[in-house]
Amino acid sequence: MKVLRLHAPKDFRMHDEPIPAPGYKEALIKVGSVGICASDIHWWRDGHIGSTHLSDPLVLGHEASGIVEAVGDGVTNVQPGQRVAIEPSKPCMQCEFCKSGHFNVCPTVMFFGTPPTDGCLREYIVWPAELLLSVPNSISLDEAAMLEPLAVGIYAVDLADVSPGETCVILGAGAIGLSVLQSLKAVGISRILVADPVPARRDAALRFGAESVCDPSEVHTAAKALTSGRGFDIVFECAGDAQAVRETAKLARVLGRVVIVGIPREDEYPFDAGNARRKQLSAIFVRRSNLTTERGIDVVLSGKIDAAGLATHTFPLENAEEAFTLAESKSDGVIRAVIRIHDTL
């Protein structure tokens, strides 16, 4: 099978490797679509995320869907031919955090595309069947791959503990920011400002239901207009940008909440300490998602959230370099570049 491995920053190489066989309670999945996340771009561009560095050739990609090809003994929840969204994290299920239901912060969690666990930019994968979520034929494989960033958006809104009538600002209108936006709309929040430097992404935010949008250079003026100078109840940082993090404390109201979703290129978050302290803000840091993909399927099927609209550009596996370059540049209206591993599924 074809396997794309990252050997060094911006050094993809195609390999021919054996198709794996599923073991006990595992399934073999024929990979359909894989979204390129900001974390994938970090690996490809920099060769690391924070303090975790590339040491061996790594397969990227964790926003994935596919079709079950075969199952091992003991599998009862899926069968060959089923379309599935793939939960990318495999927690240990033994630590205190797993036992309390906080699977996403398991210290030894295995996660696609994070050393030492290879991701989904390959034709077939083997994964525990219990981590596969069946999706109906009405959901395309591109759309099913977008359930992973959507789950992050839903989880971020859960952690923010929003209440009816609250005002929110989202800094960054990539797939995660737009997933937060749609998740807020799905729970009845309407007074939402979205700031992004890319005009096409601001336009997308309006299509997905933002009350208003602006360039980041104008965010304070827009904030005063929307909140009458009070500040936002909740600020969602979804840009992975140091300046956006600095702005969160300035934009939040007294006793407001700041929800940090983005992953910065440098391994630090530079808060505006004076505002954060004087306003006595609560800061919430989001670690991926936790048990929200199933809800993502439900809201997509109900029509409350448009996951398909996040997948704006598609590429074959052989053109992965082009896909990553586009995703990094944020040009041509891209929100999520999707690599179709098996384009005929």
In CATH, the architecture of the largest domain is Alpha-Beta Complex
The CATH H-level homologous superfamily of the largest domain = Medium-chain alcohol dehydrogenases, catalytic domain
Annotation, overall tally of beta strands? 19
The number of helices is: 11
The figure for the number of domains is: 2
Query: Residue-averaged pLDDT, rounded?
Result: 96
CATH topology of the largest domain: Quinone Oxidoreductase, Chain A, domain 1
Query: How would you sum up the major sheet?
Result: 7 strands, mixed
| Oligomeric state of the chains present here | single chain
Low-confidence stretches: none
Produce a short descriptive summary:
The chain is of the alpha/beta class and about 350 residues long.
Secondary-structure map:
Layout (H helix, E strand, L loop, with lengths): L1 E7 L2 E6 L9 E10 L2 H9 L1 E2 L2 E2 L9 E9 L11 E4 L2 E2 L5 H4 L10 E2 L12 E5 L3 E3 L6 H5 L1 H14 L7 E4 L3 H12 L5 E4 L3 H9 L4 E3 L4 H9 L4 E6 L4 H10 E9 L12 H6 L3 E4 L7 H10 L8 E6 L3 H10 L6 E5 L5
Parallel strand pairs: 12-13, 12-15, 13-14, 15-16, 16-17, 18-19
Antiparallel strand pairs: 1-2, 3-6, 3-10, 3-19, 4-5, 6-7, 7-11, 8-9
Helix pairs in contact: 4-5, 4-10
